[in-house]
Amino acid sequence: MEKRVVLVLGGLVLGAALALVTGRGRAQVAAPGVDARRWEQDCEQTHGVDEARALAKARGESGWELVALDAGVMCFKRPAPPPPKPADPWPGY
């Protein structure tokens, strides 16, 4: 019993020490002044290899990239077009 307690406490101390040494993970952010890239996503169900092959070819030719495939559902992404620039609020009189 005492051996188990020592092992558990040792594991907790080791885990806490590693957490302090490694620090927190941080998400990657875009550089200041640079817009983050936006993506379009689309998923479609396919029934069979021939249909999946045809869909992948058609989407690839349209600039889509296959990012996931599960149970016949194919998910694609491509860079989204830039948002429209806002109209100039000053009419320029």
UniProtKB/TrEMBL annotation:
<protein>
    <submittedName>
        <fullName>Uncharacterized protein</fullName>
    </submittedName>
</protein>
